[in-house]
Amino acid sequence: MNAIDFSPLFRTAIGFDRVARLLDGVRNQAETQAYPPFNIEATGDDSYVLTMAVAGFGPEDIELVVRDDQLSISGKAPQSAEGQERRYVHRGIAGRAFERRFVLADHLVVQGARMENGLLHVALKREVPEALKPRRIEIQAAAPRQPAIEQVAQAA
Description:
Layout: H1 7-10, H2 17-32, E1 38-42, E2 47-53, E3 62-67, E4 70-75, E5 98-103, E6 108-116, E7 119-126, H3 148-155
Antiparallel strand pairs: 1-2, 2-7, 3-4, 4-5, 6-7
């Protein structure tokens, strides 16, 4: 993958260091992470479901943490039963530890997670605070103007 140098853009920009870290992080993650596979599905205008294939892992083996607009999903390798050593003729199901990180957009919150048939489903929804939502301002109509003669008569 070709590396793109964004440093000239950030030499004159102030306060965009988060964007630079985001771009570097995405490039590094794309190069190094391929396990476990996942899908991101848009289920509505402001809702998403992240589905990750975690065959062989149980809910107790997986940890989800949200910190600073970043979702981290990690799994520790499932332990085999005590005293039971397995001999594989072929091992195609990876049971290794993993960690995946996803940068969440502003106001995107994790609503919950569930496991079903070896898939971890994480529900995400954009919840924009009321103060940041656009609001319509009603325009008040002015009272009809009275002719100048009527104003003088009323004043007397």
